[in-house]
Amino acid sequence: MFVHLPRSFPVPLLISLTCFDMSNKNKKQSENAPAKEEEVVQINKWDGTAVKHALDDSVKNALMEHSNMKEHFAIIDGRLFICAQAVAIALVALGYDYQYSFPASKPVLIVCVCCYFFLMGVLTIYTTYVEKGIFVVGNQKDGNGNVKRWQASSDMKKYDDKYELTVQLRDSRGVREATVTKSVANFIDVNGVVLDDLVASEVNRIVNSLNADRKDK
């Protein structure tokens, strides 16, 4: 609907009225807009790998929500460093072979291939004996400025519904850890939705027990 205004109607006032009307419309739209719901994680509950990864993510989020907790990336950085070296060696082999065609590049290619497979062996040892299924490490400062290091690892056998979670605490009193094994049905409903509140409740229980210097088995 258009309203005919006289030519003498002040333009600044017209602009102000228009802006006021638009702001009122935007305000009403924002008030009528539905509240943003929390993201729901839904997975294929028959896929063991997807179930394990989803529970790992939920445990990680629950652990990182504790006060003064910051994620520590040293273990992941170590794996990335080994992988970066392997990629660099592969690029050297590719570049040298491009510059000096085979068989002139044969000695360099042999050295690069040997180094590459050596690094793959180092990576296997690193993931098996250093990472050991650890998916999150966090540093937490207490009121006295002391740093507590938390780390969580998990294991889930193929075709098994048991999810094994191990949380380790390293502080000035030493190293303590707690391990719980429960069916994934305790944390995932029939529709494959991860129940983050139940996961957080279990993680908080473990954290409190370790802070109290008790061990769960």
Report on this model:
The protein has 217 residues and is of the alpha+beta class. The protein is built from 5 helices and 5 strands, in the order ααβααββββα. The chain has a 5-stranded antiparallel beta sheet, with helices on one face.
Structural class: alpha+beta
What is the general shape?
extended
| CATH architectural designation of the largest domain | 2-Layer Sandwich
Please give the order of strands in the largest beta sheet: 1-2-3-4-5
Radius of gyration based on Cα positions: 28 Å
Major sheet characteristics: 5 strands, antiparallel
Secondary-structure element string: HHEHHEEEEH
Distance between the termini: 74 Å
What's the helix count? Answer: 5
Poorly predicted runs are 7-20, 25-37
Number of strands: 5
Please bin the fraction of helical residues.
40-55%
**What multimeric state do the chains show?**
single chain
Which CATH class of the largest domain applies here?
Answer: Alpha Beta
**CATH-defined topology of the largest domain:** Double Stranded RNA Binding Domain
Query: How large a portion of the residues is in β-strands, by DSSP E?
Result: 15-25%
